[in-house]
Structure to design on (703 residues):
């Protein structure tokens, strides 16, 4: 069968109760049906659109084929078929991706996000599926995008920290596809094109221009009512409910005591005649008004339309549609469209049967065939042959041969999705992060960024959105993972300096600033690990300070912290003064290496001796240091003390406390007063260095 104007196309609508065959050809934009016939299945060889007995269904197809060959006076070898919408599995998921840092969203990022959605939908379906069969993704649609959790119509080129999508993905079970192919092959036919019944029906019932609108299509068949939703130019969802025309027929069978065929006659006649004549199983003839049938089936029609409306609203994101079209024989039952409109909450004129009005460009050579909703899907299957080549194609993905459902829009992403390629190997992957706490607050240090996946088709580097066709070679080199996170205590923003200084016995002592990690003291070079509990410590205890300085103190003497008696466990903070009496020591100073204390010359008077003569409130604040002074290193310095010039001698440098060797300062005159010390008019400490010519003052101050 060649695809050209005038060539015959053979389409099969393989339904639950019968098989409808159509043979015709397309000329310009019109389709001419040369022959159409239908044949009921011998037994219940199909249930809910799925073939259960391939041999019996194959024989039914064979009968239809033979009749059409005779009517059309031709030989048929290729056929177009459709998979029923009722066997489709639809899953809706929400997926998001957080970038390592804010960045501009690219089309590749969006494709990756969509693929994550389809992958998650596939996993969700696999968890719910209780069979061993695979499912083919035959389409997906993004219902809504989100930029940093806010809804947005298009993500591309926006700056984002996080992108999110609500994705609806639709899958076809492998056994359904294989069953259809096997039944067709059993009748001596080859599949020329495979489509989906909802797509075939929509192609006729809803023109492409209408698909920008939010419209539902309901195909009320024998065993099920199939539903599809369009929006923004594409089909966004499929669904079904297991109630349809046969339930109504069975109700009539029971009520009027007739066989199934007679009940079908009663049902159909009630849609276009005022009265119905029939014969029951007792061979008694009856004549009833159609209104009686309407009243009988009304509760059941109400139940079916209620469930159809609920499914439409569910598939449409929990909201009603703008309009609804109905095809299939079951939809012709009295009251169906008006009840459905009520359940959807839309005007009655917005729910309508689609039949003759959408078949204006379809012509039948068989005069007995009426244009009505029953033949929309069979004609759509034939017309679909001209629009696209839906079928299964084979490609190689990372060296493995795989089968894909060809919806005429296949891309590398579809192949990656069907192959189950992990989406986390498409995005650049961060290295392992470290989670810990600092002063009780959670903290994360992220790993390094990796590189994006490399995508190739037939050896050429491309993107995930690149179209593919039969027998292409696809290769995806996974994205790389960045370096593992690393962090030392010194890297923490709270760790501003590595040391802490105290004044011990008048001398500045610089100690390393320790941090407590999981209860243990650690230095700034400590490598932070997963789950660490870090407490920054800006203090020492007196005991820890003693241990660091490696000194022994006289336990019988007072320990003064900021001139207040304290204990070994007292906390000492930055610049606190500590005074204790040592029994032996090796002092650690910031000025230079550790020195042993040397005795002074008998002829030299030391600072210690001067301090001993000072008032008790002054003495503890004086830094003490025992050093050996060599005569050849001394200098003389001229200063003025309380207006009197004096010469300081015997040392190589001088500080304020040295003036007490050269002036008279009667400590018995304190009487609770404090001492004011000034150098060149500025307040000075006892340890402040003196320079040549300084003007020094020391006075009692009344409190």
């Amino acid at each position: 069968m060649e695809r050209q104007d005038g060539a015959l196309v053979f389409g099969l609508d393989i339904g639950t109760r019968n098989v409808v065959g159509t043979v015709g050809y397309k000329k310009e934009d019109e389709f001419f049906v040369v022959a159409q016939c239908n044949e009921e299945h011998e037994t219940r060889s199909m249930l809910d659109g799925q073939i259960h007995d391939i041999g019996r269904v194959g024989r039914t197809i064979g009968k239809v084929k033979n009749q059409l060959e005779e009517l059309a006076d031709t030989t048929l070898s290729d056929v177009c078929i459709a998979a029923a919408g009722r066997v489709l599995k639809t899953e809706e998921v929400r997926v998001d991706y957080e970038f390592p840092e804010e960045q501009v969203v690219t089309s590749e990022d969006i494709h990756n996000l969509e693929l994550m959605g389809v992958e998650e939908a596939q996993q969700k379906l696999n968890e719910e599926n209780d069979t061993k069969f695979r499912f083919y993704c035959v389409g997906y649609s993004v219902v809504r995008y989100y930029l940093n959790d806010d809804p947005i119509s298009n993500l591309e080129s926006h700056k984002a920290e996080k992108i999110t999508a609500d994705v609806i993905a639709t899958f076809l079970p492998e056994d359904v596809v294989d069953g259809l192919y096997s039944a067709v092959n059993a009748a001596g036919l080859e599949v020329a094109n495979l489509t989906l019944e909802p797509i075939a029906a929509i192609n006729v019932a809803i023109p492409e221009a209408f698909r920008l609108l939010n419209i539902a299509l309901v195909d009320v068949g024998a065993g099920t009512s199939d539903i599809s939703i369009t929006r923004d130019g594409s089909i966004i969802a499929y669904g079904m409910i297991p109630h349809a025309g046969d339930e109504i027929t069975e109700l009539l069978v029971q009520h009027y005591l007739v066989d199934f065929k007679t009940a079908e006659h009663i049902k159909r006649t009630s849609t276009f005649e005022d009265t119905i004549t029939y014969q029951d199983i007792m061979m008694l003839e009856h004549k009833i008004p159609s209104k009686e049938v309407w009243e009988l089936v009304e509760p059941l029609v109400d139940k079916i339309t209620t469930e159809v409306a609920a499914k439409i609203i569910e598939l449409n994101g929990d909201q009603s549609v703008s309009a609804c079209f109905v095809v299939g024989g079951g939809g012709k039952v009295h009251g169906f469209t008006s009840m459905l409109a009520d359940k959807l909450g839309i005007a009655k004129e917005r729910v309508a049967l689609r039949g003759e009005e959408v078949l204006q460009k379809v012509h039948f050579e068989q005069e007995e065939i009426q244009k009505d909703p029953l033949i929309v899907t069979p004609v759509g299957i034939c017309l679909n042959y001209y629009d696209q080549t839906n079928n299964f194609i084979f490609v190689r993905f990372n060296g493995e041969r795989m089968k894909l459902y060809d919806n005429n829009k296949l891309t590398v992403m579809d192949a990656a999705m069907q192959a189950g390629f992990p989406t986390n190997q498409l995005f650049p992957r961060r290295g392992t992060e470290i989670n810990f706490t600092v002063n009780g607050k959670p903290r994360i240090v992220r790993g390094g960024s990796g590189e994006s996946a490399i995508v190739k088709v037939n050896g050429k580097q491309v993107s995930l959105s690149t179209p593919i066709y039969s027998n292409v070679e696809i290769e995806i080199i996974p994205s790389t993972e960045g370096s593992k996170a690393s962090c030392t205590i010194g890297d923490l923003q709270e760790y501003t300096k590595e040391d802490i200084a105290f004044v011990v016995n008048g001398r500045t002592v610089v100690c390393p600033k320790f941090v407590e990690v999981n209860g243990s003291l650690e230095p700034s070079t400590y490598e932070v690990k997963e789950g660490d509990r870090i407490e920054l410590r800006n203090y020492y205890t007196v005991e820890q300070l003693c241990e660091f300085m490696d000194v022994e103190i006289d336990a019988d003497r007072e320990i003064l912290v900021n001139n207040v008696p304290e204990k070994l466990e007292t906390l000492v903070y930055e610049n606190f003064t500590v005074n204790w009496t040592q029994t032996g020591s090796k002092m650690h100073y910031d000025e230079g290496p550790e020195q042993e204390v040397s005795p002074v010359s008998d002829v030299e008077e030391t600072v210690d001796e001067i301090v001993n003569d000072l008032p008790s409130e002054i003495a503890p604040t004086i830094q003490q240091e025992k050093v050996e002074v060599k005569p050849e290193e001394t200098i003389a310095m001229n200063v003025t003390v309380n207006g009197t010039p004096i010469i300081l001698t015997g040392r190589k440098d001088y500080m304020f406390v040295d003036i007490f060797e050269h002036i008279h300062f009667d400590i018995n005159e304190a009487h609770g007063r404090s001492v004011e010390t000034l150098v060149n008019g500025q307040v000075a400490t006892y340890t402040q260095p003196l320079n040549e010519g300084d003007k020094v003052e020391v006075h009692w101050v009344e409190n």
Notes: The chain is about 20% helix and 35% strand. The first strand starts at residue 9 and ends at 14.
